[in-house]
Amino acid sequence: MQYDIHNISLAGAGKKRIEWAGRDMPVLESIKERFEVEKPLDGVNIGACLHVTTETANLMITLASGGANVRLCASNPLSTQDDVAASLVKDFGIEVFAVRGEDRDTYYKHIQSVLEISPTITHDDGADLVSTLHKEYSDTLAKNIWGSMEETTTGVIRLKSLERGGSLLFPVFAVNDADTKHLFDNRYGTGQSTLDGIIRATNYLIAGRTVVVAGYGWCGRGFAMRAKGLGANVIVTEINPIKAIEAAMDGFRVMRMDDAAPIGDIFCTLTGDIDVIVPRHFEMMKDGAIVANSGHFDVEIDVAGLEKMAKSIRRGVRPLVDEYTLPSGKRIYLLAQGRLVNLACGEGHPPDVMDMSFAVQALTAEYVAKNRGKLAVKVHSVPKEIDETVASLKLASMGVEIDGLTKKQEEYLGSWEIGT
Ligand code: NAI
Questions:
Q1: How far is the CA of 158 from the centre of ligand 1 (A)?
Q2: Check: CATH 3.40.50.720 for 189-344?
Q3: Residue 373, Cβ neighbours under 10 Å: how many?
Q4: Is the CB of 217 under 6 A from ligand 1?
Q5: 293: Cβ below 6 Å to ligand 1?
Q6: pLDDT in tens, 162-202
Q7: How many angstroms is it from 352 CA to the middle of ligand 1?
């Protein structure tokens, strides 16, 4: 067995946390129980590049229960939970290559370690594994891939761009775009965990503060809703006029970042875009402004620009809080070096919501294994039946029953025509 983790002796604590999360993932648990019997992934080599958290651990255990040989590396250098990595290796026999705080070279070395098992199915969060396969292994390992699952908005954007350019090499599934994923994970998961990360890092009171949210997509609207719930005055910045109207009609002030910069106390970017907060904004901000990012890559805040303009940088005011003093004497506090604040400063999304996202991942992996060789090389939507299965299982686990259509209602809804 091979692995590269921080410290195997952390396994005991990791196991307890994995089990704690598992208690709140009933849909994934029911899939695991079926996988144990049916072994739909028997002998399949699976390579995963995901945030190494307690929820991901439960997904890895589910895939292994289905008979897969799984190797896991991190999809972000700061999101790995070292105790979880240790327990996956020691208690569950899963080969993990991830160390919290690893440098860029180690991060990519770990991706290579995952590819060494020559996977036929992959799971990505941000498309780094698939990108490496396209860049370095287009004539070799990429040819073995039956199908690949992508967890996040930014990864799907990258894959669609490959598809448009005609360079996509194998079938991929946009797990992010499944309804049981983005409507809940991105909105309620990112909404809650991003605030949780900011609060854990700073211990700030949110009530009465002005919180500036950049981006009113699924993540941004969840964050704005939760910040409002805690008593913040929320301002939204957008580039999409329709999303901007939605934000305004949801009761938020909408303005340009240039206008929000001088009045915000806490800033959070959730756009998937680059250069959302740049040096001219820092100079306009109040003394003591807090700046964080919860979009996938650390490109939304121009950290290099901030470093260049700052007169001095005092690291470690608190863990993952860096103080930058500008020429004007104002201090700006950057959280988690501009990386995903919810995963770096907190534990990421709660298991209850990852239950659905990772149920979709597991069922789509099974679908790929069943349909290998028959799938077109393109960005696929997750089959509708998978979304419906996950939604029904989740509702059942919540003890919620809903009405069904009567025959008459079905006919009524199905037979509507213009003029009737
Ligand atoms: P989305 O596409 O639904 O929303 C992004 C929004 O940002 C859009 O409304 C877009 O118009 C807006 N936007 C783009 N550039 C902008 C700019 N310069 N200024 C202001 N607004 C701008 O995407 P979603 O699902 O909300 O994801 C956003 C980011 O969060 C992605 O990078 C995604 O991968 C990431 N993500 C992070 C998670 C986490 O755990 N922190 C979980 C899920 C997604």
A1: 13
A2: yes
A3: 6
A4: yes
A5: no
A6: 999 999 999 999 999 999 999 999 999 999 999 999 999 99
A7: 22
